[in-house]
Automatic annotation (TrEMBL), chain A:
It comes from the Bacteria. Belongs to the ABC transporter superfamily. This is Cell division ATP-binding protein FtsE. GO terms for molecular function: ATP binding; ATP hydrolysis activity.
Automatic annotation (TrEMBL), chain B:
One of its GO terms (biological process) is D-methionine transmembrane transport. The keyword Repeat does not apply. Signal peptide: none annotated. InterPro entries: AA_ABC_Transporter_Permease (IPR051322), MetI-like (IPR000515), MetI-like_sf (IPR035906). SUPFAM superfamilies: MetI-like (SSF161098). This is D-methionine transport system permease protein. It is a multi-pass membrane protein. The keyword Transmembrane helix applies. Its main location: membrane. Belongs to the binding-protein-dependent transport system permease family. CysTW subfamily. Pfam families: BPD_transp_1. Residues 17-211 form the ABC transmembrane type-1 domain.
Length: 322, 221
C-alpha cells in the first residue's frame, strides 16, 4: 500500500536526512519506524503525506506517485492519510468539537454530517463528555485522543504517528497505543508509527524498520528484529531498553534460549532439569509480549548433569544460541 | 474651576477631542485593513512557510522597515503631495489620515507577522495534513489561533496612533496635539497643556483597557 524506492532527501542546507530508503508497508499493518533522534524518522513520515518532497526516489501510496500530485490531487490524498503529532497540534482557540470538525469543514462536509460524525468520533476515542472544552483544559493523553479523532474524521486508510506518545507518561502511552491497536483491528487502518522507544514498537507494531543516519539498517517482523537483531544499531537500541546490558560472568556452558508462543507458558527448565540432572542459572532474561504474542528470552548458565542432553532438550522447545 | 483653567476654551477642547477621535478612528480602521493582509503575506512568504519566496519576502521586509525607520514627522512632510492626491487636502482630519496609515500599517503588519509566528508549528502542519488550502489555513487556523496576539498588536498600534495624531497636529491636522502645541507650548498656557495631556492619557488608558479585555476574552488557557 505504501511503497518507497531509493528515496533521498537533502535539505536546502545540504544536510542529507534520508540517503536511499526502500520500504514496503502492507495494507492493515501497524508498521513501526524506530531510530535515534535525528535519524530521519520525521522526514520519512512527512514524505507520506507530501508535507515534505523527496529530492530523489519514488513515494507511492496505492500505486499513486506522490511527486505527480499538487493542488487538489494532493489535498485529496491528504484526506486519505491522517496524521498525529508529538505536541498534538490542536487549535487552542477552538473547542474539542470544532477541532474534530475542522477536517470535515475543510473537506466541505455539510452541517448535518458534521453534527452526526463528530460525536461519533469523540465517543470512539472516549471523549464524548468533553466536546465543549478547550484543549488547554485536557490532559496530554486526552489531547492526543482529540488528535486521533481529528485524524480519523475524513475516514482515512492510513494513520501517520510522529512520536505520538513521546510527550506522555508510560501509563498514558499504553492507553493510547491500545487505542491505536483497536483502531487497526476494527477499521483495518494501516498505521505508520515513528518512535525512538522500543517499548512502543513492542506493544503495538507488527513489523518494524530501524532507521539510522537516513538509511534502513534492518527491517522485519517485530519478533525477528527484537529477538534476533542483526544490525549493531538495532542491538544498541534494544540494549538501552533494558537496565544493564552487561552479561554476568559464569564459569561453564552458556545457552541463550528464545521461546515464542505457547512454549513460554510451559515449565521447560524445571522439566529438563529433572530429566537431565542439569541445573540452570538464569543470568539474564526477558519475558513479555510483542503486540499479542508472548515471548521469553533467557541467558542460562548450565551446571552439572548431562549438559549436552540438556542443550538438546532446550532446542526442542525454542531456539538456542551458545 | 475657571480660575484654575483661565485659558481653557472648553468648546475648542471638545472640537479637538472629536478631531482626534476622528483621526484615530479613521486611521486605525485603514491601518488594520491594510496591515493585516500585509502581515499575513509577510508570514506566508517567509522561509519554511507555504508561499516561501525570498524575493517577495525580502522586498516586503525592506519596504516595511524603510517606512518604519522614517521618523513620523518627516513622513508627514514628504507625503504631502501624495496626501493631497489621496485626500484632496493635506490639512485637517482628512489630510492626516494618509500619513497616519502609511506610518502605522507597516508597524501593525510586523506585529501581525510576529503573532502568526507564535502559532505552533505542529498545528500548522496538522491543518495542512488535513488537506487544507492556503485560504483554509489562514482563515480557519492561523488567524483564529493568533487572534489574541493580533488584538494585542492592534492595541499597541492604536496607542502609537494617538501619539502620531498629536504629531500630525503640528502640521495643521487639528486635534488635541494641535492644541497642546499651539497654546500649551507656543503660548506657555500650561493649563491648556495639562488638560490636553490629561485627555490624551485618558484616551490611551481606555484603549489599553479595551484591548486587554479583548485579548483576555479571546485567550483560551
Ligand atoms: N527543514 C530542515 N532543514 C534542514 N535540516 C533538517 C530539516 N528538518 C530536519 N533536518 C535535519 O534532518 C535530520 C533528520 O531530522 P528528522 O527527520 O526530524 O529526525 P528524527 O525525526 O528521526 O529525529 C536531522 O539531522 C535534522 O536536523
Ligand atoms: Mg522527529
Amino acid at each position: 500500500m505504501i511503497h518507497l524506492e531509493n528515496v533521498h532527501k537533502a535539505f536546502a542546507n545540504g544536510h542529507a536526512a534520508l540517503a536511499g530508503v526502500d520500504l514496503e508497508i502492507a495494507r492493515g499493518e501497524v508498521f513501526g519506524i524506530i531510530g535515534r533522534s535525528g535519524a530521519g524518522k520525521s522526514t520519512l513520515v512527512r514524505l507520506l503525506n507530501g508535507l515534505e518532497r523527496p529530492t530523489a526516489g519514488k513515494v507511492e501510496i496505492d500505486g499513486i506517485a506522490l511527486d505527480g500530485l499538487s493542488g487538489e490531487g494532493l489535498r485529496a490524498l491528504r484526506r486519505r492519510v491522517g496524521m498525529i503529532f508529538q505536541n498534538f497540534g490542536l487549535l487552542g482557540s477552538r473547542t474539542i468539537f470544532d477541532n474534530v470538525a475542522l477536517p470535515l469543514r475543510i473537506a466541505g462536509a455539510d452541517k448535518a454530517r458534521i453534527a452526526a460524525r463528530v460525536p461519533e468520533l469523540l465517543a470512539r476515542v472516549g471523549l464524548a463528555d468533553h466536546r465543549a472544552k478547550y484543549p488547554a483544559q485536557l490532559s496530554g493523553g486526552q489531547k492526543q485522543r482529540v488528535g486521533i479523532a481529528r485524524a480519523l474524521a475524513t475516514d482515512p486508510d492510513i494513520l501517520l504517528c510522529d512520536e505520538a506518545t513521546s510527550a506522555l507518561d508510560p501509563e498514558t502511552t499504553r492507553s493510547i497505543l491500545a487505542l491505536l491497536g483497536d483502531l487497526n483491528r476494527e477499521l483495518g487502518l494501516t498505521i505508520v508509527l515513528i518512535t525512538h522507544e522500543m517499548e512502543v514498537v513492542r506493544q503495538v507494531c507488527d513489523r518494524v524498520a530501524v532507521l539510522h543516519a537516513g538509511r534502513v539498517v534492518e527491517a522485519g517482523s517485530v519478533a525477528d528484529v527484537f529477538l534476533r537483531p542483526r544490525a549493531a544499531e538495532t542491538r544498541a537500541l534494544i540494549d538501552e531498553d533494558g537496565e544493564d546490558a552487561r552479561p554476568l560472568a559464569f564459569d561453564g556452558p552458556l545457552a541463550r534460549l528464545t521461546l515464542q508462543g505457547d512454549a513460554v507458558l510451559q515449565p521447560v527448565l524445571t522439566r529438563i532439569a529433572r530429566e537431565t540432572g542439569t541445573d540452570f542459572v538464569i543470568l539474564d532474561g526477558r519475558i513479555g509480549r510483542l503486540r499479542d504474542a508472548s515471548f521469553g528470552q533467557l541467558t542460562l548458565g548450565l551446571s552439572g548433569g548431562n549438559t549436552e542432553a540438556a542443550l538438546a532438550a532446550l532446542r526442542q522447545h525454542g531456539e538456542v544460541a551458545a | 474651576m475657571s480660575g484654575w483653567f483661565a485659558n481653557v476654551d472648553w468648546s475648542e477642547i471638545g472640537q479637538a477631542c472629536l478631531d482626534t477621535l476622528a483621526m484615530l478612528g479613521g486611521s486605525l480602521l485603514l491601518t488594520l485593513a491594510l496591515g493585516l493582509p500585509l502581515g499575513v503575506l509577510l508570514f506566508l512568504t517567509s522561509p519554511g512557510q507555504v508561499w516561501q519566496n525570498r524575493v517577495v519576502s525580502g522586498g516586503l521586509a525592506l519596504a516595511v522597515n524603510l517606512l518604519r525607520s522614517v521618523p513620523f514627522i518627516i513622513l508627514l512632510i514628504v507625503m504631502i503631495p501624495l496626501t493631497v492626491l489621496l485626500a484632496g487636502t493635506s490639512l485637517g482630519v482628512a489630510g492626516a489620515i494618509p500619513p497616519l496609515v502609511v506610518g502605522a500599517a507597516p508597524f501593525f503588519a510586523r506585529l501581525v507577522e510576529t503573532a502568526l509566528r507564535e502559532v505552533d508549528r505542529n498545528t500548522i502542519e496538522a491543518v495542512q495534513a488535513m488537506g487544507a488550502t492556503t485560504r483554509d489555513l489562514v482563515f480557519r487556523a492561523l488567524l483564529p489561533e493568533a487572534l489574541p496576539g493580533i488584538l494585542a498588536g492592534a492595541t499597541v498600534t492604536a496607542i502609537a496612533l494617538v501619539s502620531f495624531t498629536a504629531m500630525a497636529g503640528a502640521v495643521g491636522a487639528g486635534g488635541l496635539g494641535d492644541l497642546a502645541i499651539r497654546f500649551g507650548y507656543q503660548r506657555f498656557q500650561t493649563d491648556v497643556m495639562l488638560v490636553t495631556v490629561a485627555l490624551l492619557l485618558v484616551l490611551v488608558q481606555l484603549l489599553q483597557m479595551a484591548g486587554d479585555r479583548l485579548v483576555r476574552h479571546f485567550t483560551r488557557r
